[in-house]
Amino acid sequence: MTLLGFAAPLLPLGDAQSLARTVDALGDGPQAPLLGVLTFAALASLGAPQFVLITALVLVFGPWAGFAYSWIGKMIACSLGFLVGRRFGARLLLQHQSKSIAALMMGLAKRGFWVSAGIRLAPTVPSVMVNIAAGATPMGYWPFIAGAGVGSLPKMALMVFGGAAAIEALRTGDPSAWGAVALALILTLIMFLVVRAWRRRLQP
After folding, report:
1. SS3 57
2. Of 105, 121, 124, 115, the residue nearest 143 (C-alpha)
3. Cα–Cα distance between 159 and 58 in angstroms, integer?
4. Which of 156, 151, 107 is nearest to 133 (CA)?
5. Of 65, 76, 142, 163, which residue is least crowded by CB atoms under 10 Å?
6. How much is the average pLDDT of 151-173?
7. Which run of H or E residues covers position 125?
């Protein structure tokens, strides 16, 4: 199973099965990690569910390599979104203007690193819009990508842990694997609530 083959049913890719077979053929070799990273970056930039993409990479490459390749792909997707925002951000955001996006842009302009990191831990705005919004503000690229990189690690680690446990639970029915899935969900909820409370304290 490849990344694209796993995610295709959730995406408007047309003849998904044919495309998945193509990626399967290309992915049998030393280029497979690069292909996985680039496919993750492309699909994440289009707004594909990242839990699906991360779980797919775990299936293909295993937990540790899947985690690393997912994180690299995420950073590429964030960078692409930032560049799009820097070039076309004002026009794109005008089409999707809302209070949450306006507040996000204000926070990014004032506290770029912390807002970029915090929004990854407990997202309230789609990641694609966060990246574009950041590019549309005066903040620098390095504070943005550093915040995105640090902030993405805990959530992605929980996704990898939970995804690997879910794969094992579905494969074997092991109660301990289902317990690990439940633990990952609980930790994710706790992280979301803590970060949301922290963000409220930062608001004027």
Report:
1. helix
2. 115
3. 10
4. 107
5. 142
6. 86
7. none
